[in-house]
Design brief:
9 helices, alpha/beta, seven-stranded mixed beta sheet, globular, about 260 residues
Length: about 260
């Protein structure tokens, strides 16, 4: 298409304006959100719900503003009814986290520590209760506080979102899993739900934040591929590694199934 490069630029600017506008609105309504949070049992939930509804709006903007794009959330009501669990997902694009936030209303994520230092963004994710990835390396008091956040979230039927690969995949293939999510599952006595996301990397191309790849046929999908309920009688690093390998094989099987169809 002759017009595609111009469409890519125009649509990308529009998408970024919508996204950044949401951050600005948070700043404007923060006093209201803060006052409301003072009268709730779980203050971070107020900010989480605002982010959830904004992300639902943002994903709909993507759906209708990008030519050729379809977004399918399979069994969305079933996913929204997941409670007090660790949500695992493969990670192929910056968009992955936004889609998960649009589906799950009450949730926090373990986020790269560097994002907490970004102006406005760091303040927003901190207010929503997100936890830095190096929380285990912080002082004892901060580590306990972050762990208490997790327990409080789970008591409110919330979920913890973790990308077990630890970073985005450059080629879309599943990378080695880290064991942190599985250690937490055993420590907190909660199950793990495995979700799989496809084709976000075709729109948000790796290491290319501008422009996005629009005006091509693309179907982004999110769906469940597995559930692991750990044996509460078993503990320790060796069992956490066993759970990690079980989850990794679930994702690897799904990855290979997709490759065989393409």
């Amino acid at each position: 298409m002759i017009y595609k490069p111009f469409a890519d630029i125009f649509i990308t600017i529009f998408i970024w304006v919508v996204f950044l506008s949401g951050l600005v609105v948070i700043l404007l309504v923060y006093p209201i959100l803060y006052l409301v949070s003072l009268f709730t049992e779980y203050p971070q939930g107020v900010f989480q719900r605002y982010i959830h509804y904004f992300m639902r709006f943002f994903i709909e903007v993507l759906r209708f503003s990008v030519p050729g794009l379809d977004i399918k959330i399979h069994d969305v009501e079933k996913l929204r009814n997941i409670k007090s669990s660790i949500i695992l997902c493969n990670h192929i694009s910056f968009l992955d986290g936004l889609i998960l936030l649009s589906v799950l209303k009450n949730q926090i994520s373990i986020v790269k520590s560097i994002y907490f230092k970004v102006p406005i963004l760091g303040w927003i994710i901190s207010s929503a209760g997100c936890i830095p990835s190096d929380y285990q390396n912080t002082s004892d008091s901060r580590g306990v506080r972050y762990f208490d956040k997790l327990k409080s979230l789970l008591q409110q039927n919330g979920n913890l979102i973790i990308f077990p690969e630890g970073k985005r995949s450059r080629n879309g293939m599943i990378q080695t899993f880290k064991k942190g999510a599985f250690t937490l599952s055993l420590t907190l006595n909660i199950p793990l739900h495995s979700l799989y996301i496809r084709n976000t990397n075709r729109l948000f191309v790796h290491n290319k934040s501008f422009p996005f790849n629009t005006c091509v046929k693309n179907c982004i999908e999110l769906y469940s591929i597995g559930f692991i309920n750990p044996d509460l009688d078993l503990k320790g690093i060796s069992y956490a590694i066993q759970l990690r390998d079980e989850a990794y094989n679930i994702y690897l099987e799904e990855n290979n199934k997709i490759k065989s169809v393409l």
